[in-house]
Structure prediction request, 287 residues.
Amino acid sequence: MSEKTHDIRPGQSVELLKALHILTRDGKMNQDSRRKLKQVYHLFQFIEPLLKDVQQERGAVTLADHGAGKSYLGFILYDLFFKEQKDAVGNGSHIYGIETREELVKSSEELAKRLGFAGMSFLNLSVAESITSSRLPGTIDVVTALHACNTATDDAIHFALEKKAKYIVVVPCCQAEVASVLRKNKGKALADPLAEIWRHPLHTREFGSQITNVLRCLQLEAHGYQVSVTELVGWEHSMKNELIVAQYKNLPTRKPSERLTEMLERIGLQELKDRFFVPVAGAAVAE
Prediction:
């Protein structure tokens, strides 16, 4: 164990970090915990300006965190940002942690109550269920999904689009669906020389992961979002490292809609058009 605690941000609740098992009972931190905290802090640096922007615009901010797990991200966001905005929390600022494992939802509820984090709720729902759940408001300002596995990231994007989110922040994980469809349709696809990119099994997996995120970015652009892609932390910390941040700006949607449709057809992924859907009127919107 390391004696150092200088990695902790000013104002961060030590009690919270102990409850999340990032710190031991005597306030120490091991290397694995330090790596985990660094990831969440790095993500916080990306998200904090988005929260400030929404709050300046409307006085309060709502955030939904999908695949919340133990809610490391939600708790640290609340501890470093929301709890300092007491008036905003009273006026509707809120974090919703969405998680399928009931035991994690219950433990998060207990921790939020113990810490007095009144502006936090935890829902035992799948991402898909949350889209139509009456337990969430009709609009959500910021949607996050940190390492939501495989298609759960797409469900989080679907949720964000339905909730008219201004900002979407996702770190995708374990993209297997597209690779499986590529594998299934490989025989037909090999008529196109570009299929050599994913002909070998290892390349199918790697290309499937890469093209999944490309399609996600195009889908977001097809719905009027401005998209940026970067790495979350250095590769020494995590291989699940791609950070996609999207801001709704009502941008022209025709070209990305057409590109997305063309890519699905050329690569042999037409059966996934309902997952990577474009707006109904997307093709008709002027460039």
